[in-house]
Amino acid sequence: MTALLEVENLRVSYGKIEAVKGISFSVEAGQVVTLIGTNGAGKTTTLRTLSGLLKPTGGKIVFNGKPLTRVPPHKVVALGLAHSPEGRHIFPRLTIEQNLQLGAYLRKDSGGIGKDIDRAYELFPILGERRKQAAGTLSGGEQQMLAMGRALMCQPKLLMLDEPSMGLSPIMMQKIMATIVELKAQGTTILLVEQNAQAALSLADQAHVMEVGAIKLSGTGQDLLHDEGVRKTYLGED
Ligand SMILES: Nc1ncnc2c1ncn2[C@@H]1O[C@H](COP(=O)(O)OP(=O)(O)OP(=O)(O)O)[C@@H](O)[C@H]1O
Fold it and tell me: Which residues belong to any copy of the ABC transporter domain (predicted)?
């Protein structure tokens, strides 16, 4: 079976600094795949490159059978790859509903857009209750929900989530992780970058540990959850 996303020997540099040093991994349709690793490992750089925001210096990206290596961001979205970025980047002065509508900016099917907005409200009822409120009035966790809901509005074939639990309370983090499990059950394919290795590995089908721009270890989420080295370095065990 051909994977939905194939990344082969991907290299990305900022000037003379090589941040991603030839990584390879794939994502099958219906899977949750996670990239974990310490700060500066190159996870965000990888997602930004897949989104077309950064140009790779080498390697190959194939998404849904099409080369993605030099495709601009709006075309990447049109091909079905959505990115919920680190730091959320919602529009604070627009209402929650307007933020969701912006996620569908490439679509023309107003009926379908309306249905998907309702779906976002089903997934995150708090957003529905506050639909007319400025998005800047939401809490950090609620803004994360909005960022995820907005990314889903382009009906992605693959949803990329960068650090969705960052800065959230344990309860809010659990809610976000439960939503990822629910999205997976609905058939959404997800590439998840997470600092919270325990949570990410618990729900991932496949996982990759990144260190200084390279993939150091790969396996199923459960394999890595029980790996002694991973437990010491990423799960804080002695
Ligand atoms: N705009 C930039 N210009 C120069 N170097 C950068 C830039 N963005 C990131 N880097 C460097 O690239 C490397 C990888 O950073 P990246 O943000 O991809 O890591 P990360 O694994 O996502 O870490 P974090 O969890 O802290 O976000 C780091 O050494 C970082 O300092």
Answer: 5-237
